[in-house]
Specification:
Largest sheet: 9 strands, mixed
Number of domains: 2
CATH class of the largest domain: Alpha Beta
Strand content: 15-25%
CATH architecture of the largest domain: Alpha-Beta Barrel
Distance between the termini: 38 Å
CATH topology of the largest domain: TIM Barrel
CATH superfamily of the largest domain: Alanine racemase
Number of strands: 17
Shape: elongated
Radius of gyration: 22 Å
Structural class: alpha/beta
Order of helices and strands: HEHEHEHEHEHEHEHEHEHEEHEEEEHEE
């Protein structure tokens, strides 16, 4: 374990139970504060994605810093946070089948809250419209545009503009504007590529909106086309796309923790990563190999977000740049080390995971290193939500 973190901690290393998912509160709060300051500086709303941390304590920090609401991917996640007091939640995922019914049940259960969702296809928008009319409510909905990830989303430009016009005519829908996620930035090889992706992320939405605005008043809505919102997400690109004039909302998630992927992309330096995994060496069966007690059930099997395979191993061992976590089984991590390494059985290693989001989702709680060196426990209340 690095001397910096060890000096701040009231407990000794020998007292630590491992593997431990540890969050440095001061670094976490700095990350939260700086993103909120960025949003204020550029006049955009901040609606952070909960998928990274899934904890109420961090959501409270984000809301207190100025977030206008929260973003999630599952109705189960939305339910957990609505139960805790969230009042504006965007479910940024296409809800189909019985999930449409469940969405409106949640709206009825929490009438004081605003629930929003997205669509990228006319048939799906029509299904949402029919359900909204049947319930006698107006549903806030966003049009998801594909800015290059090639996942969910309609092609930007005239195709998206035409779909927006058709959606605007549907009763029961209050179309907010355009939304995208440039997740393919995680596969970028250089900061220049990240910048190009972030710029296109914003401009493809703004150009699509301009096509809609050229049609003038949207007859079936009370709002004018000029008031449409433009929402971008993705931690690697948010400080690029979020700074483009005309963008009105940002939805980063990973920024609260960051990870080895953000380091590789040049988004942050290692010292800004607020989440680490502490793991103890349980065996050194050979001079060039150790085994640690953090396996796939702790570190996850990601080699990088969105299918990127650009990272070596399954996390960065801080202070041991030549050590590589080569293999993971469920409870074991096999690490290649130099034969002259001084690592011994019983040593606690500090690991920056490749992707912090699944690491948080794999644990029941986060151990938080407070400002005074004490440790607190924050429950990951929305982990494991599958529906």
């Amino acid at each position: 374990m690095t001397e910096f973190w060890q000096q701040e901690m009231a407990k000794t290393v020998d007292e630590l139970e491992t593997p431990m998912v540890l969050v440095h509160r001061a670094k976490l709060e700095q990350n939260v504060r700086e993103m909120a300051e960025f949003a204020r500086e550029h006049g955009v709303r901040l609606r952070p994605h909960l998928k990274t941390h899934k904890t109420w304590e961090i959501a409270e920090l984000q809301l207190a810093a100025g977030a206008v609401g929260l973003t999630c991917a599952k109705l189960g996640e939305a339910t957990v946070f609505l139960e805790r007091g969230a009042r504006d939640v965007l479910v940024a995922y296409p809800l189909v089948g019985p999930k449409i019914r469940r969405l409106f049940e949640l709206m009825a259960q929490y009438p004081q809250a605003v629930l929003q969702t997205l669509t990228a296809e006319l048939a799906h928008a029509q299904a949402l419209s029919e359900a909204a009319v049947a319930q006698g409510v107006q549903l806030k909905v966003w049009l998801k545009v594909d800015s290059g990830l090639k996942r969910v989303g309609v092609e930007p430009g005239e195709r998206a503009a035409q779909l927006f016009r058709e959606m605007a005519q549907l009763p029961g829908l209050d179309v907010q504007g355009f939304l995208t996620h440039a997740g393919h930035a995680y596969g970028a090889q250089t900061p220049e590529q990240v910048r190009a992706i972030g710029e296109y992320e914003a401009h493809c939405l703004l150009e699509t909106m301009a096509l809609v605005q050229s049609q003038g008043e949207i007859q079936s809505q009370k709002q004018n086309a000029s008031s449409l919102a433009v929402s971008v997400g993705s931690t690697p690109t948010v400080r690029i796309s979020g700074a483009v004039s005309g963008v009105t909302e940002i939805r980063p998630g990973n920024y609260v923790f960051c990870d080895a992927t953000q380091i590789r992309l040049g988004v942050v330096r290692p010292e800004r990563v607020s989440l680490r995994v502490l793991s103890r060496v349980v065996s050194r069966p050979a001079g060039d190999r150790i085994v640690i007690d953090a396996g796939a059930k702790t570190l996850a099997l990601d080699r990088g977000a969105h299918g990127s395979d650009a990272l070596q191993g399954y996390g960065l061992i801080v202070g041991h740049e030549h050590a590589v976590i080569e293999r993971l089984s469920e409870e074991h991590g096999v690490v290649r080390i130099p034969t002259d390494s001084h690592i011994r059985v019983g040593d606690v290693l500090e690991i920056i995971p490749n992707h912090s989001c699944p690491v948080a989702n794999l644990t029941d709680h986060l151990t938080v290193l407070n400002h005074d060196g004490s440790l607190s426990v924050w429950s990951v209340i929305a982990r494991g939500q599958t529906i």
